[in-house]
Amino acid sequence: MSSQPAPPLGTMTVEAFLAGVWQRRPALLRGAFADFVDPIDPDDLGGLAMEPAAEARLVHRTGDGPADYAVDHGPFTEAVLAALPVRGWSLLVQAADCWMPAVARLRERFAFLPAWRVDDIMVSFAAPQGGVGPHFDHYDVFLIQGMGSRRWRVGGRCDGDTRLQPHPDLKLLPGFEAVEDWVLEPGDMLYIPPGFAHDGVAIEPSLTYSVGFRAPSAEQALLGLAGAVTDREGEFARFADPGRPPVAGAGAHIGAADLDRLRGLLRRMIDDEERLADWFARFVTEPKIEDLLDTMPTEDAIGLLGSVDSLALDPAARAATVSDRDGGLVLYVNGEAYAVPTDQVAWVEAFAAGETVPRPLDPAGQTLAAWLFTVGGVMTSEDEDG
Ligand code: SIN
Ligand code: CO
What we know:
By secondary structure, this protein is an alpha+beta fold. The protein has helices at about 15-20, 40-50, 80, 95-100, 100-105, 220-235, 255-270, 275-285, 300-305, 345-350, 365-375; strands spanning about 25-30, 55-60, 70-75, 90-95, 120-125, 140-145, 150-155, 180-185, 190, 195-200, 205-215, 310, 320-325, 330-335, 335-340, 355-360.
């Protein structure tokens, strides 16, 4: 990385992007990465697709129709990858940033958004005419064009009523109508908000880095909070109706006042700021690939800590911070929490945001740093090669 940070969005300012584009409309950010150098090559991606813990897919075109795609799930053998034809397929590996620090470093460009908002970076290699078909995603995505060129057609916003092609594995859009039609060259970037139809077809052998964002659904939040409520309040938080007026006759009606009481009960659960923050921070720091975390007992962590000069977040780890009721800082790493002593806040905030920080030397800092190793939060020398 050069010492002079490049503007993250090409000619568009971050302010203009956040005010008018983010979550609102697709945008082509031409030349967002000047002189882009691919952090991996197609062979590295093939190697990753052979790993049992990696989430890899091969999507083949089976014809020219909009639903003519077939998908195979990894891990793949070298023989399968070597036998792929010249055209009409795409190999995709989810969360490649968790495996490869060089891919994870692409996240630095998105520092204008909170680090916890980024979910993962998927990398795809598409042979000419390869792609995954017209579809929409539920998340924001920045598609960075690496080697080669790719034609992206972008359509309108879809929703729960949008009809999908009948297909056993893929959610493809029938009758996709493009509003925009762009050819992306290395270093160009396309932003697609949640729900917008898009379809990318490689013109030349092409690498695409999809920086995807994390956004819980209402269902996930309600279910997650319900779990936290059950732990804390147990049996006692219940529907209650003191001072209820008598019903007129043998009524079986649930009235608006009853629903207000129920709503009040639910609101009290949601209004508990600390619980809300705790659930949200645990959710957004859930690791993508548990198997990749080097968690360890405290004794090993203390030993390892003594052998390093600096600390950086493991590419497979996720971190966030929240404020507690008294204004103190709580650090979450990989779904685990640590109350940060006041004199450690500065380095912890930098570390959680992805900066490399010097190893703390005071006892409170050492204890916290050792905890980071126990939860698999620190990049070790084995991770650094990628
Ligand atoms: C791809 O890289 O082929 C697909 C990315 C996307 O459409 O989200
Ligand atoms: Co997509």
